[in-house]
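Format notes (please read before filing issues)

Several people have asked whether sequences and structure tokens are stored in separate files. They are not. Every record keeps both together, in the order shown below: the sequence lines, then the token lines. Line labels are part of the format and must not be stripped during preprocessing.
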Amino acid sequence: MLDGLDDEQLAAVTAPRGPVCVLAGAGTGKTRTITRRIAHLIDTGHVAPGQVLAVTFTARAAGEMRTRLRGLGVGGVQARTFHAAAMRQLRYFWPRVIGGEPWQLIEGKLRAVGQAANRLRLSTEGTTLRDLAGEIEWAKASLITAEAYPTAARGRDLPLPAEQVAAVYAGYEELKNRAQVLDFDDLLIHVAAALEDDAGVAQEFRDQYRCFVVDEYQDVTPLQQRVLDAWVGDRDDLTVVGDPNQTIYTFAGATSKHLLDFPRRFPEATVVRLHRDYRSTPQVVSVANTLIGGARNRPAGSRTPLAGQLPPGPDPGFAEWDDEPAEAAAAAAKIRRMVADGTPASEIAVLFRINAQSEVYEKALTEAGVPYQVRGGERFFQRPEIRRAMSTIRTSQAAGPLVDTVRAVLAPIGLTPEPPGGAAQRAQWESLLAVVELAEELVAVEPEADLRRFAGELQVRADAAHPPTVQGVTLASLHAAKGLEWDVVFLVGLADGTLPIQHADGDETAIDEERRLLYVGVTRARRVLHLSWALTRQPGGPRRRRRSRFLHALIPDHHPASRVADDSGRGPAKPRCRVCGAPLIGTDAALLRRCTDCPSDVDVELLERLRLWRSSEAAQQQVPAFVVLTDSTLTAIAEQRPSDRAALVAIPGIGARKIDRYGQAVLGLVSDD
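Then the structure lines:
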């Protein structure tokens, strides 16, 4: 049972009964560790199998836990999701706590949400209802009532004004209670209330379960924490496992606060950090460490770097493409070669930020003859909004320039000039925008194409994208990829505005979550990792995009992909060295505006003043010095000696936020000369 464990895993497995917090980085063997801890506690007589309740967040993970325990000769442990455990307990205690027949569980809340919205004469469009349902789920998971919602929801991306969402929320709860039905959140609410309010129920439950294990603890919501507190009571036989660097569901109410505050809540807790990565090659691990190390507000409990334990593998690949079809075609060609050389298609994944990005990869893989499956979402042409768009285009009699006509035809079904609020509405909008981009692609090769021709083109694409279902390459969003791993991972579409997503700009907390999302993607790769981006959506379009800001520290300076994009006359000229005139290669060269091996004219005294000022700022903010300004940026300032805000902001690395925060101080230091 203890064979093959590393020192940290062994410490977690053999820790005495009581509070244990395992901070487990990606690929460090957390499932192995917690299942062996459960088995060890049972084997040493500390607890009986039936007295252990282990909870996690997906049925797949719970099933994996049960399988591992059976492999260790342990049966009888309850390993379930939070909701499955709550449902079982509520059914058992219902006659005593509430009486009568248990209320039925509704499979989904859209119908009741729609009824509540209709009574208020609000939109009952499918995407609006999905966004309203999402807001109700967030509020209930966050222990926020309908009355408190308008205040609590300030700053959230809402489908309707907060007061209207709150009214729908209140109406939904009223309808549900009248019909005597429960939703999934109610399972948790009622179980917590039963244990909190009925001492007899609490005592019976706590006599049954004496040892608790929580996996993926960084994703616990306030409601789930309330249930856990009710389960545990005043005891402390609790083991929690999680990784704050993989917190990617805060939009749904999840918070890593409970994981990071665990040692404060239980000062006597055993805290173990698992940092040896057995999943990925050292090259992949290095990218992951560098990426997450750039997060601005990284708590202390998340700063232990991973240490790769596998033999070396290939260096990660980076590639910049002129447009998305070229990026997708290149990925498909690489995948076809890998499959031909013996890599199983099921061991390859293409991961992207939003589901609307899948269509171009579905098409490229189909053309390359590579089987694929879309995980966590429907194939592009199976999505309801796309089927509706195709039907609308097919039956429309509108005429005129194709792209403008398509925009006009799709406007009534949700293609507004600007992206709407609410995640579901925005996802539909992005899918409809992708249809417009297909029209742009057709016009590029057939300038005279009309709506009828475009309808035929869409049908051809839809038919080609529906091969028989087979095991193949996985296409998935980064959220859907959580908890999975593949030998080969392609991270695609890594352009600013997509990752980080555009609506995260201006919100440092949201930007950090976007960084963690990319970190999750990187750590899905065992052996081969490719990262790519495109400068425009369609061939011939203006090359206005730039690679994701998260990639700047990852690409080697002399890698071809580190070059500043060339607009070929359609935009600003490519930056050149101010000393020798050669094109600039690498982020450091771009910052300094000279080749890194060209002579430096740095003002040494100014550079020293800047460093002293930065140290003081970092100490006041309690952040690493590079978070204020990097060494390369300081050197660029000391070389170029900007005399005003315009000259300072022209230095790469000095954006609007930093110019507002530090501009006056930096210019003051420069003017001291």
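For reference, the curators noted about this record: Residues 465-470, 566-573 have pLDDT under 50 and may be disordered. The chain has five domains: 7-87+188-274, 104-179, 281-379+467-574, 381-464, 604-671.
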